[in-house]
Amino acid sequence: MYGDPATVRKILTELGDTWAVVGLSANQRRAAYGVAEVLQRYGKRIVPVHPKAETVHGEKGYASLSEVPFEIDVVDVFVNSDLAGGIADEAVAVGAKAVWFQLGVVDEEAWHRTRAAGLDMVMDRCPAIEIPRLG
């Protein structure tokens, strides 16, 4: 329900290649690190967003979405579900085109708010799993 194939394909192929990865740090043991690496391999520009604002995979990090000084196409969210809705609201505020909640991240109220604001959204899915399936 929260990741129909048409929306997944649209986000991965049509909405732009600048992906803010919220929760991405230099910690190689975290899922965000590996997913960001896969996104880069498929031509996406990743933007690390984490309170530490670390450079990851050669890309400068920012402490919040509002600090990113250029347009963000997709906000990929690696935070727990309790915090994810606030990140979705920030994505709307900064003018992102889509929000992607990672596996296990679900907030139905955020889904409805984000969709009502005109953004595409996927929840409880992983782009590193989905993008190779596109062929």
Can you give a write-up of this model?
The protein has 135 residues and is an alpha/beta fold. The protein has 5 helices and 5 strands. It has helices at residues 5-13, 31-41, 81-93, 108-116, 127-130, and strands at 18-22, 45-49, 74-77, 98-101, 120-122. It has a 5-stranded parallel sheet with strand order 2-1-3-4-5, with helices on both faces. Helix 4 (108-116) links the parallel strand 4 and strand 5 (120-122). Helix 3 runs parallel beside helix 4. The two termini are 22 Å apart. The mean pLDDT is 96.
Q: What is the arithmetic mean of pLDDT?
A: 96
Largest sheet: 5 strands, parallel
Q: Helical segment tally? A: 5
Q: Rough shape?
A: globular
The beta-strand count equals 5
pLDDT < 50 runs, ≥5 residues: none
How much of the polypeptide forms β-strand, as a percent range? 15-25%
Please state the CA-atom Rg, rounded to the nearest Å.
13 Å
Order of helices and strands: HEHEEHEHEH
For the largest beta sheet, what order do the strands appear in spatially?
2-1-3-4-5
Helix content: 25-40%
> Span from first to last CA?
22 Å
Which class best fits the helix and strand makeup?
Answer: alpha/beta
